[in-house]
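Structure, all two chains, one model.
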Amino acid sequence: MEFLSWLEQSSFSVWMRESPSVWAYPMVLFMHTLGLGLLVGASMVIDLRVLGCSRDLPLEPMKKFFPVMWIGFWINALSGLALVTIDATAMLTNPLFYVKLIFIALAITCGRFIGKLAFSDALADKGPLPPSKILAAASLVFWMAAITAGRLTAYLFKDVGVADLSH
Amino acid sequence: MTAIVDFATWIKATKLSAFVVHSPWVWPAAETVHFIGLAMLIGVIALMDLRLLGLAKRLPFAPLHRLLPWAIAGFVLCLMTGTVFFAGEPFQYIHNSVFWFKILFIALAGTNVLVFYVTGIFHEVEKLGPGDDAPRAAKLIAVVSLFLWIGVMYLGRMLPFLGEAF
């Protein structure tokens, strides 16, 4: 707890939180939204194709969309780290935050397996097999759950924290 | 402006408005759906734009374009939940210039989509096979589309900071 208070009282956190500049806290929130769009959006497109939407879309060249996902992921890992630092006590004592992290880990794991399985199916010229489809469906569910938990973190279990931050 | 104030006054008096404001879960639930819709819209649109710009060039365009209904569904989710926010607190939006810029950007993005379909650019692009380069006009449409949709997200996120609406 002391560490968390130290973190959120560090000069970086105080500047981020209290600077009226739109380049501080608001910019980080925007980056987190942009990253979400890229990461979840690109994952969804791949999942939908694996599940059988637009079957004549060749799967193999879609591999090129994975870097879009990873760019989104890193934007969000970094902006997320900044957001946690700013409001450390509230975030790290909020159980929903950990629920969100678990769903992200599950969704990313699905994504990695889809990358291996579905794309090897594609090379075998068969189209995605049932295990790939289960992973794609699970990925969609996990991303929805991660977004839900993330959004609700701003509303529930908010009894501690430094500032009245608007999310 | 009076017509807008009248409309805001009318919507504020609806049962929907009272429901949004008085139920503790409607706002967070609508926000969650707004973000899911955002991901659907941006995901499909950005990947189509990137294909036109040369990423994953081995994808033929027509089958990729067949995923468009998912983007439209995402847009409809955002429109519906956006209406919920507006109905709940109309005055915090109509007096907020960022809100009007967001509406302007959405209108411009819509116009860009219209230009894509009515000027025949889509007809050319529809024929793009694996490895084909998109015409310059289509690339321009794609860049404008990415700029405008990212702008819409930016302005949406700035609502509480530049104009004090949540």
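Residues 26-52 of chain B form the longest helix (27 residues).
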